[in-house]
Model the fold of this input.
Amino acid sequence: MKRYGGTSKYTLLCVREIESMRFFSLANVIEKAKSQTSAKKVAIAGADYRPIIQAAMMAQKDGFVEPIFIGNASKITEMLKELDEAAINVHIVDASEANAAAFEAVRLVREGMADFIMKGMLNTSQILKAVLNKETGLPHGDTVTQVSFIQIPGYHKIVILCDGAIIPYPTLDQKISQINAVTHTLHNMGYENDIKVAVLCASEEINPKILESIEANQLKQMNLNEEITGCIVEGPISLDIALDRHTAEKKKFESEVAGDADVLLVPSLVAGNLLSKALTSFAGAVSAGMVVGASVPISLTSRVATVEQKYTSLAIASTAAKKGG
Done:
């Protein structure tokens, strides 16, 4: 496998001739979204928020999204006017109450009128409640999970972190479902079966006193026994070994995943949240995320995320979504 390491390679926005498809920057994801043959319809729940509307209209102009704005119709119309956008050119559904907006977004997907969902000005729990509703929700696997696509200065490609927002303390079965959901999503985006999953722990040693290390090894063995497929699982593995091949060499840790991880599976929500915020707040990383595991992706960003981050999240989700759900 050809590798692209070093900071100088990181500055490249697009590498075309590679042995297996990878995103080397968030710009690659946006380029792939723009290259789609037709726009994906996104149901935006709680769309009466200016940055959401700005991001969606940018994506519409770039040809990869057709937004359906669900929220307070008068506010949405007014914001469109302030942005010099003609309201007549967009689909607006009036649903001022947050829960109603979430259920309406799910209904649109269920009836084939939208290809994926975006969370606007409402809580993640409100979207998930609508998605997971046993009677009116969407088909989903055993576990829905959050993933962040992170561009880290100095690392040679995009790394996907799972999960810093939804599952507090994933069980072994939930970790299996997380791996399956992430690899399925990446396959939809063009990755092949060599997705490198690092099951993170405090160290690379199996410690009987640390459950996470035992379960990490179990996941690795399940992958070797082809009970988990479509990827290469390594664990337990420390963060520095997962992302730095020189550290792996110094510690004499031999693995295809060492220094070349595509996915970082964290042991808990707290660990994932802290790692993500440390990277984006203090290490200059840029991140955009979504929820996977349901029948369609759910574009998910913080309400304080920038317009550019929301736009990038739309690009990621539209690339992962299939036409017609």
About this structure: The mean pLDDT is 92. Residues 36-139+314-325 form a domain with the Isopropylmalate Dehydrogenase fold (CATH 3.40.718.10). The longest strand covers residues 140-151. Residues 7 and 104 are 45 Å apart (CA to CA).
